[in-house]
Structure formats: structure tokens, C-alpha cells
């Protein structure tokens, strides 16, 4: 297999990388781009985490998640949909989010954020619609680079939602907190978190917010890690992997875990500290209720 990686300590400015600008298959890590577009539409008043959506049977698809197995029609909020898209990488929830936000709008947001190599091509388990770029068959669902995907996580970690660089809105902090809450509750810790966090996060809270992606020959992860020496963002991608086992012992999962372990040990010998990051509002004010 192959590895591309970009890591950045947001406090010290330290970076580490391996082919950080090489285009790679995203698998479900592209759902970070959907999350960013949701943030942009919410802060523009075009969407709300509390708005009601209805899951219909024709929207249900196979693969990861639970919505594809439940009885439709089913009423959910956009916040529910995004939460399932992140914590369970729910494919049906992802397609509902794409329908609500709009594929073209999601990609326009990615371009406005300066991400020239990050694209969401289509819905999951749905054929590509209309003319597609020539590289779509190669990348499948989506394309990105380690550097660009890390930049999405950095935007959320630093709550830089204004794509034009303007001052944040009063609602930006709680909105970032709501989205980080989803990533903070990610249930797949087999890759980047594997060797750096061993506590029962359901009881004590995690020091990591992350989003994974996987295909037979692909294992990817992008994470925000609260360390004793500042927040660290790591985006790591593997492809053409020989080990295609769908278990936590997959060689690529272990490799990503070892990379994260090496980076954290070098940059923060004292380890992780979940309380060192303002998860509820990265802008520093007292955390308010989730943005509606």
C-alpha cells in the first residue's frame, strides 16, 4: 500500500508530511466537506440543524450506518442526519444530506475554501449524474489531498467559518462546537486514535475528534487531537493496500495508528488532554446551546 499524510500542531506551527498534495481517494472522509458546507449554509440562514427532513424508502442505501435498515418514512432533523453521517459514517444519512444541501453547493463551498483538489463527485451507491470529470472513475466517491482535508478540520478547530476571511459571527462558536461534538463522538477509533487513546471514552470523554473512510484497498482518517502541547490535526490516507480485511487488525489501520503515535510522542511527550481544547466553542466563549 501507499500513504499520504499531513500533520499540523495548531499551537506551535510544527508540521509533518508525506506526499501531502497528492490527490487520493477520500472514501467517507469526503463527508468532512459535506459538514463544512452544512456550516456555511447554516450560518447564512439557508439551513438549520433543527429543520425537519423525512427519510423515504427510495433514499435508503446499503453499507455503513443504520438508517438504511430502519422503517421509512422516518422524520429526522438535519442535525440528526449529520450526526449519523459522522459517528456511524451512515451512507443513507449522507445521501439525505447531499439532497438537502445540494451537490453543486457542496463543491462550490469547497472551491470557495480554496480546496482545488477536493471534490464530491456523487451520492453513495448512486451512479454519477451528468457529465463527470475524467478522473471520477479513478477516485469514485470523492477526491482530496492530505493537506486539503486537514485544512477542513483546521477550520472547524479554529472556527474559521468565514470563507472570505471576515470576522466570525456571534453564532460561529456554538456552531463549530455542535459540529465538533459530532466528530468528537466518532465511534471508529481503530486508525489514528488507535495507540494514543486507550481510556473508555464513553465514560471519560475523548481527546480526539475524527472522521474515517474505508474501501477494500483504502483506509483513511482525519483527526483533531487535543494534546498537552496544543491541538494537533492529522489527515492520513492509504490506498492500494494489500491487506483488505475488514477488521481492526487491518495493516493500514495499524499503520495510521503508529503514525499518529509517533507524531504525538514527538510533539507532546506528556500525551493527550481532552480538557485542553474548548470543544463546545473553539472561539473561547462559554459554550452555548448547539446552533439551530
Structural write-up:
The protein is α+β, with helices and mostly antiparallel strands and 292 residues long. The chain contains 9 helices and 10 strands. The chain has helices at residues 31-43, 78-87, 91-101, 103-112, 136-139, 146-158, 172-184, 201-204, 251-267, and strands at 2-9, 15-18, 24-25, 52-55, 74-77, 119-120, 142-144, 208-215, 218-227, 230-239. The chain has a 5-stranded antiparallel β-sheet with strand order 2-1-10-9-8, with helices on both faces. A 3-stranded antiparallel β-sheet has the order 3-7-6. A hairpin with a 5-residue loop joins strand 1 (2-9) and strand 2 (15-18). Helix 1 (31-43) packs parallel to helix 3, helix 1 (31-43) packs across helix 4 and helix 2 (78-87) packs across helix 7 (172-184). The longest helix is centred in the C-terminal third of the chain and has 17 residues, at 251-267. It is globular. Mean pLDDT is 94; it is low at 286-292.
Strand content: 15-25%
What integer value in Å does the Rg equal? Answer: 18 Å
Overall pLDDT level = 94
Cross-sheet strand order for the largest sheet: 2-1-10-9-8
Main sheet overview? 5 strands, antiparallel
| Straight-line distance between termini | 43 Å
Q: What best-fitting shape do the alpha-carbon axes yield? A: globular
Helix content: 25-40%
Please count the helical segments: 9
Helix-strand category: alpha+beta
- The sequence of SSEs as H and E is EEEHEEHHHEHEHHHEEEH
Q: Tell me the number of strands.
A: 10
Low-confidence stretches: 286-292
